[in-house]
């Protein structure tokens, strides 16, 4: 019975799907540090995490039984994807499942900050009646600047236009503008134009420290800043200084450079106690609907990979979509992408009298992935011969 370890309080649907597929599932509510993780991965084929657990190259090197990692979130920067690929550990995430939830919290933050609801709420809870329109605005007619026009940015663009906002976006890659959204020629153009700036960039290392004091200084005086992307993208000290000086009239921050590992742990930030600043504990995608969808999506992906070898939407291996027909013995062979590998595989199978019923090859950078269905039993001699090839990364016999 294969073993799965699910950390960080994943949705129960993930456990149910894997147990129905025959996994022995262990669940933990919090993240694990490196030494705890290495110890816990002994004999485990499948690891499920969210954003807190760091799956480093050292962890992967010591997790000899690990076959796949499921990131039950959008980001995968907490996983050393290159090291995982080099060891033949497939990684899957949920690129779409919580998009709507993140977009909705962004819209809520935009309206709340523009209307200064946080200030009114705090004063009312202190027993102060301060009815005033000063500093409160409609979002209709204001300009939203979206940095990062991917799955979240594009859907946010559409909803913001439906609220009567103008949308300008900036993305390093060429993207199709939706509706009446306009692409900014540069980041500076967006910053000087937008009344609200919202960040939806990915977790690649080059985005660390992307948005700090110089970028905030180029924003319109009194603008609003949102960061629902990655904690290391924005400098919190620069945000604090801008709120205190009035350069920013408000901010909503959902992600932080250092975050507690477990629910209930203390939280510290330069942004505590500031006026018209919304702080949320990395809950942009944390709705019951999104977490259930993520639990189903990622659990199904890793289950299918272990059962059939299908790598569709894997973030670090060549993508191959596969079903498994009955009556075949499937070899899933991850290898270095060099000339002649497929010929050597087929020659080895022929030498051992293995007839090929079907075969599919895909490549991705330095890796190749060939899946072969054999019509007869595959002996240990065949497996040993394939694993002995210098190009071999990982070979699995799936049936």
From TrEMBL:
InterPro entries found in the cross-reference section: ACT-like_dom_sf, ACT_dom, AHAS_small-like_ACT, D-2-hydroxyacid_DH, D-isomer_2_OHA_DH_cat_dom, D-isomer_DH_CS, D-isomer_DH_CS1, D-isomer_DH_NAD-bd
Entry similarity comment: Belongs to the D-isomer specific 2-hydroxyacid dehydrogenase family.
NCBIfam families per UniProt: PRK11790.1
Keyword NAD found: yes
UniProt cross-references to PANTHER family, sorted A to Z: D-ISOMER SPECIFIC 2-HYDROXYACID DEHYDROGENASE FAMILY PROTEIN (AFU_ORTHOLOGUE AFUA_6G10090) (PTHR42789)
Family annotation (SUPFAM superfamilies): ACT-like, Formate/glycerate dehydrogenase catalytic domain-like, NAD(P)-binding Rossmann-fold domains
Alphabetic keyword roster: Amino-acid biosynthesis, NAD, Oxidoreductase, Serine biosynthesis
A UniProt-annotated Pfam family: 2-Hacid_dh_C
GO MF: phosphoglycerate dehydrogenase activity
Catalytic reaction list: (2R)-3-phosphoglycerate + NAD(+) = 3-phosphooxypyruvate + NADH + H(+); (R)-2-hydroxyglutarate + NAD(+) = 2-oxoglutarate + NADH + H(+)
Protein name: D-3-phosphoglycerate dehydrogenase
Biological source species: Cellulomonas fulva
């Amino acid at each position: 019975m294969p073993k799965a370890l699910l950390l960080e309080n994943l949705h129960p649907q993930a456990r149910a799907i894997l147990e129905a597929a025959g996994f022995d599932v262990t669940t933990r509510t919090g993240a694990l540090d490196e030494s705890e993780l290495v110890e816990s991965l002994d004999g485990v084929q499948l690891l499920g995490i969210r954003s807190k657990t760091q799956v480093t190259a050292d962890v992967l090197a010591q997790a000899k039984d690990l076959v796949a990692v499921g990131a039950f979130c959008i980001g995968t920067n907490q996983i050393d994807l290159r090291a995982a690929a080099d060891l033949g550990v497939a990684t899957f995430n949920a690129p779409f499942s919580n998009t709507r939830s993140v977009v909705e919290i962004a819209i809520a933050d935009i309206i709340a900050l523009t209307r200064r609801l946080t200030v009114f709420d705090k004063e009312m809870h202190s027993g102060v009646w301060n009815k005033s329109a000063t500093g409160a605005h409609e979002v209709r007619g204001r300009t939203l600047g979206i940095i990062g026009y991917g799955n979240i940015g594009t859907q946010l663009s559409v909803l913001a236009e439906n609220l009567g906002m103008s949308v300008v976006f900036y993305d390093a890659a060429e993207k199709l503008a939706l509706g009446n959204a306009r692409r900014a020629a540069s980041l500076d153009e967006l910053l000087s134009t937008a009344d609200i700036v919202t960040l939806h960039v990915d977790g690649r290392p080059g985005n660390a420290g992307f948005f700090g004091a110089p970028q905030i200084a180029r924003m319109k005086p009194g603008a609003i800043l949102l960061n629902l992307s990655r904690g290391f993208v924005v400098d919190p000290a620069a945000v604090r200084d801008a709120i205190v000086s009035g350069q920013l009239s408000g901010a909503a921050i959902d992600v932080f450079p250092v975050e507690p590992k477990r629910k209930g742990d203390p939280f510290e930030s330069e942004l505590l106690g500031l006026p018209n600043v919304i702080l949320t504990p990395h809950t942009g995608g944390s709705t019951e609907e999104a977490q259930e969808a993520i639990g189903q999506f990622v659990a199904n992906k890793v289950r299918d990979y272990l059962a059939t070898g299908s790598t569709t939407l894997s973030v670090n291996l060549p993508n191959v979509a596969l079903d498994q027909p009955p009556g075949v013995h499937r070899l899933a062979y991850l290898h270095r992408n060099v000339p002649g590998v497929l010929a050597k595989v087929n020659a080895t199978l022929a030498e051992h009298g293995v007839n090929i019923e079907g075969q599919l090859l895909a490549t991705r950078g330095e890796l190749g992935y060939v899946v072969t269905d054999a019509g007869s039993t595959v002996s240990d001699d065949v497996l040993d011969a394939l694993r002995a090839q210098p190009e071999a990364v990982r070979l699995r016999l799936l049936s």
